[in-house]
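FORM 7B: Structural annotation worksheet

SECTION A. Query
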Amino acid sequence: MTGRQIAMVIDLNKCIGCQACTAACKSLWTDEPGQEYMLWNNVETRPGRGYPKAWEAKGAKSGWKNGRLQLGDLHPQEDFGHPVTLNVEEIYFQGAGGHLEPDRPLAYGSNWDEDTSSGDYPNNYHFYLPRLCNHCTKPACLEACPVRAIYKREQDGIVLVDQDKCQGFRQCNRACPYDKVYFNFVTGKSQKCIFCFPRVEQGVAPACARQCPGRLRFVGYLEDQDGPIAKLVYEWQVALPLHPEFGTGPNVYYVPPMLPSRFDEDGDFDDSEPRVPMEYLRYLFGPGVDQALITLQGEMEKKQEGKPSQLMDLLIAREWKSLFNIPDVRVY
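SECTION B. Predicted structure
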């Protein structure tokens, strides 16, 4: 157990899939040899296969099941894809003509299903799902490590991999049901999101949250009753963990998406059922998503009628500092 637990809430109703969070994380943390394929933060189009490919199918076989740790299989590297080098020099600077071509065929990648909708027109749908390490309350990766190279910090609950202790057994890769622990084939070490702890220690929000133009990521401590995290998770109960059945107690939460109304056969709005099937939303966020959507819809209607809504004011986040309930938050 830790003294405090830092957490993140991601409002999926604001995410436009711009990948600014992915670029911020990539440029800051994973620019060393062996990290080329790593995306500690990525944004998936849903429904879709995700990154790595079909990670949820592997996740269903790992994590905690009936109180016991289960180890899944390792993904083949093809499930992650590989960095692509284009013939830019040849085409643009040597006058060869033709089209830009990759150096080798690409069968999959992190954005392979990007902007691909499901369902039938005009009621097709998709939404964006940012993912990072959940810094779980009960991390499967920590429990699986045979040399205890993975630890959870007492002061904030951030889960880290000690690079000096790690011996590359890859049990953590097998145990994490979210596939958010990566293996560096150059160093022979496992690596993962560190929740930008050097920034947090200086009162600066994680890069993925600070660089988000949509103001959809809230960062703070679960124990701070007056902070945005506790209000969204505990008071309003509209922020839910992804795949709670995996049993790790994720500390990244999501406000579920509320897409526009469906159309009926006459082209009129039909509110009898949501555009995103509830069965799929329950699959992602568990049974609590039903009440969360009811609460969100009710508070949105109050706001539209000109009535006050503390929840909507919180989610709108007109002042960017309201997103980050960390001590002495700074502008960076």
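SECTION C. Observations
The domain at 6-82+109-325 is CATH 3.30.70.20 (Alpha-Beta Plaits). The longest strand covers residues 6-11.

SECTION D. Sign-off
Analyst initials: ____
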